[in-house]
Amino acid sequence: MIKYIQAVVYDSWSWLWLLIHTNDLAYAVAVTATILLVFSLFSRIFFKSKKISPQLPPGPRSFPLVGNLLSLDPDLHTYFASLGRTYGPIVTLWLGHKVGIVINSPVIAREVLKDHDTTFANRDVPAAGIEATYGGKDIVWTPYGPKWRMLRRVCVSEMLSKTTLDSVYDLRRKEIRQTIGYFYSRKGLPVDVGEQMFLTIMNVITNMMWGGTVKGEDRAGLGTEFRLVVNEMTQLLGTPNVSDFYPGLARFDLQGVRRKMKVLAKKFDDIFETMIKKRQEMDGQEGSKDFLQFLLKLKDTQDAKEPLSMTHLKSLLMDMVVGGTDTTSNSVEFALAEMMNKPQIIQKLQEELDSVVGKDNVVEESHLPKLTYLYAVMKEVLRLHPVLPLMVPHCPSETCVVGGYTIPKGSRVFVNVWSIHRDPSIWENPLEFIPERFLDGPWDYSGKDFKYFPFGSGRRICAGIAMAEKMFLFSLASLLHSFDWKLPEGQELDSSEKFGIVLKKTVPLVLIPTPRLSNPELYQ
């Protein structure tokens, strides 16, 4: 019966597409509604005739065709948290014809990410994600299996290992010092902190990827181009797409999301191809070490069983650019915003910096392990404003039982880490920014404790934790050691959040830097 319905819908949509292109739009709309209604009725009759035991998790009432799509709040993290308070720690939503499962409990999160880790190790890849990452061949979207394990090994054990990151420290340091010099040139004037940190992190990442390949004005122009493309890509990745909610319509790309993403991905691919060609031409020459040089060498020496292809190499570069920019820069911006509301935290952190670094020196990464209060500030920022509030959604490879309910194969599973991190039954004064809670507690972000896991957990835990930690701590320490910060006169601080793929401040943070070090040479 299902095959018959699918055939009818396929033929009907092919006919409908013809109608649309013959400009009979009004008729096409009427036919569309009829086809979808008939399909919805058939689907409901069929699925209701199959009793699911145990039942799906509870959830709000859904409607024909659209499910719960029309009732979704744009701020999904807060909306999902409210559903948890109403229906319990695990909730079902119908996203068009896609089953959505929302988890707001550390107990249920443990079942998904630890007890059933292998079952939930895959992703429900959106159409935009497929187009952005060479058909979903990056570490984020690749299905769990030998290829994913190879990519994970390249990232964690080799490309982002402590040894490799230490080898490109000079590249990171150079960019941070240039940013400090920029803020010094703007002393006494308002600056958009988030924008500058985005450009800094972008330059750091591109410098680490091919720092010895591009120089001078070419490099500055490349950073500007990357910023524009990344902003457009993240916007598309966060756009609700009919193709994801109604798989039968994906081939039509009704909103043009895949088409737009293809254009943006091509821009990145052209840049990657240019950089790869330049790096290959430099083979054997003296120059700075960078990730591209490392990956090309690794590609030529890989085990033939699961080789690192050129497509895989470029997809890893794509992950570095898109996944490592907004994430870190937004966290630094949130940290400064929260501390502006509590100047005693800034004072305590600056006292620690003066004690460890000194006021006649500049911050180096070697100082970071001694800055215990700085670490506590970072952990508290990641608790209150987790980078990915809903993580990257998981997708079970088979139907299983979680929390006493059935989770269907192929459903989209959202783990609301934002809600768990603000649970008053776990955290005292959960909405308050209190770094001291992390000074003596057992909390870390290894993913073993499901009351606090800002980088995820299990097999799919973030591969870039080490780099994210270094870049956040180095950036924030340098900003607070070098400057005092204040709001422009007459402006009030707004710490509200804007939901997206990554959590952002609703209102950009604009502050005025005042140098606090007496020697101007420390700002060069």
TrEMBL record:
Cofactors required: heme
Positions bound to heme: C462
Coiled-coil residue spans: none
Example GO molecular function: oxidoreductase activity, acting on paired donors, with incorporation or reduction of molecular oxygen
Transmembrane residue ranges: 25-47
Keyword annotations: Heme, Iron, Membrane, Metal-binding, Monooxygenase, Oxidoreductase, Transmembrane, Transmembrane helix
InterPro entries: Cyt_P450, Cyt_P450_CS, Cyt_P450_E_grp-I, Cyt_P450_sf
Family classification: Belongs to the cytochrome P450 family.
Protein name as annotated: Cytochrome P450
Gene source species: Daucus carota subsp. sativus (Carrot)
